[in-house]
From TrEMBL:
The keyword Cell inner membrane does not apply. InterPro entries: Peptidase_A24A_bac, Prepilin_IV_endopep_pep. Residues 70-181 form the Prepilin type IV endopeptidase peptidase domain. Residues 1-20 form the signal peptide. The keyword Oxidoreductase does not apply. This is Prepilin type IV endopeptidase peptidase domain-containing protein. GO terms for molecular function: aspartic-type endopeptidase activity. The chain crosses the membrane at residues 51-80, 92-111, 117-137, 168-185, 194-212.
Length: 213
């Protein structure tokens, strides 16, 4: 493990008590003061720390590194909340998107090349519209939170290239299908049972895994 990667993982684990506190507040539907540090169970902290560390490790292949680190840390919170409540709170997604956009703009300014930034914006817009259309056609299978997160992950992937955007979408649906089959198989009614799959974890996992293909 290289020193920059080690620092990224250590930094993610260091902020995990705050991240875990956010998951508790957001999962409880708290709208005010959800960003404050609060006591959480050891199990919740360990879960958030493990998910975040895994995302940071996989996101290490992405560039710019600051944007991917932000996506991994914020995504860890969103993944845990979505798995627990099947909701992706806009009150976290929007600030996270603003921070990531700022990181991408800074990288474009420092690198003196606006091409990747424009591609990132176009990717976010394109995939966001596609997911909005999916939500309109089938509101029971997806939500606005899924569309927001899909646009965000696609924007970061768009900086890397269009191939990664489409690979991530394919991986997302494959992971979601695998999750649905697993959830149905574990239920008493087996595969005959209709299940609702939280798309947040699949979107985030698909995004970071696409970097390695």
């Amino acid at each position: 493990m290289t020193w920059p990667l080690l620092v990224s993982v250590v930094a993610a684990v260091a902020v995990s008590p705050l991240s875990a506190a956010w998951t508790a507040a957001l999962a409880a539907g708290q709208h005010r003061g959800w960003w404050r540090l609060r006591p959480v169970s050891a199990r919740r902290w360990a879960t958030v720390a493990a998910v975040t560390a895994a995302l940071v490790l996989l996101a290490a292949a992405g560039h710019p590194s600051v944007a991917w680190w932000l996506l991994a840390v914020g995504g860890g919170v969103l993944a845990v909340v979505d798995a627990q409540t099947e909701l992706l709170p806009a009150r976290l997604t929007y600030p996270l998107a603003a921070l990531i956009a700022a990181a991408l703009v800074a990288a474009a300014v420092i690198g003196g090349d606006a091409g990747p930034l424009l591609r990132a914006g176009l990717a976010a817009l394109t995939v966001g519209v596609l997911w909005l259309a999916l939500w309109f056609l089938s509101p029971r299978t997806t939500g606005l939170g899924d569309a927001r997160l899909a646009a965000l992950t696609s924007g970061v992937l768009g900086w890397v290239g269009w191939a990664d955007v489409w690979q991530a979408l394919l991986l997302t649906f494959l992971l979601a299908a695998l999750t649905a089959v697993t959830m149905a198989a574990r239920s008493r009614r087996g595969l005959r049972r209709t299940v609702t799959v939280p798309m947040g974890p699949a979107l985030l996992a698909g995004a970071v895994l696409a970097l390695w293909l």
